[in-house]
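Protocol step 4 of 5: obtain the predicted structure for the target chain.
Materials: sequence only (see below). No template structures provided, no constraints applied. The aim of this step is simply to have a reference model before the mutagenesis design in step 5. Sequence pasted as it appears in the construct record:
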Amino acid sequence: MIDRPGDHVRAGGAGLGAPAAVTVEDGLPTVAEYRDLRAAVGWPSPGPDACRAALENSVHGVLARDRRELAGMARLVGDGVMYLLIVDVVVHPGHQGRGLGRRMVRRLVELAGARRVQLVAAPEVVPFYEQLGFVRGTSHLMAYRTVG
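Step 4 output (structure tokens):
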């Protein structure tokens, strides 16, 4: 992982629109939290063992927490050197519109440093990522098969 022990960023502050009780911190969710948050936004999940392996193989993760409740998550996957891909940017519907997704993505980009960071975005969220500095590439997403 790229993380540095003890790193965390408190959400809130001027212009961020997030309540002070919500924090954005480095880390990964538990398997149960991961599956629950994906379900909350209507995303399917593979079984617990596949989710555990996916989380364990993350390069880095960030969590948004409202006290102890998981409000959001985002992960970096890849080889940690040349290829980094942002995945699983999810904010619980009850916490959407507060800037948490923006803070989590910015934290992952900050951790990636000078390395190139990519992501795959559904058409309806492309403008969100463009506001964060991502540009549409000329390549096309291609899939061979889906796990899960």
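Step 4 remarks: The chain has one domain: 8-131. Residues 73 and 101 are 8 Å apart (CA to CA).
Proceed to step 5.
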